[in-house]
Amino acid sequence: MVSDLVLRYFNLDDALQCSSLMQDHFLYHAINLPIKMRTQIAKGRTAEYVQKIAKDRLIVVVVADDKIVGMGALKANEIRHMYIQSEYQREGIGSMIIDFIEKEAFNKGFFSIIVNSVDYSEEFYQKKGFKSLIKTQIIRHGITLETILLEKILE
Length: 155
Hints:
alpha+beta
């Protein structure tokens, strides 16, 4: 486990680092998407985009050595924008973020939380207690993505 990790709320000064984290994910790790689509999505993940989405959702970041290495967001009761820097994956950062977001959702009065996940992340969410509901397609920024809708009942 990586030591000296800090989970905290996003602030506007984090936008550029969060943007880079998102772009890296789509350019190099979203291999289930065609390269043209990955490039198009990555181009849209600017610092301005991150600042815009921060207006209507709770965003948390995980920092190691003054660098954002993970992020996640909550919009109503839906988890959005879960990204972990590749060299920090499988170090418990995703679990830190999910655990925090679940508590936030429960404290806001939600009794369940959902996530639209790509297939390669389904196992992670299942290990965190989520149940797969249905395979679906969602449209984000004019792009259709194959996803799996998962839900967890909060207690």
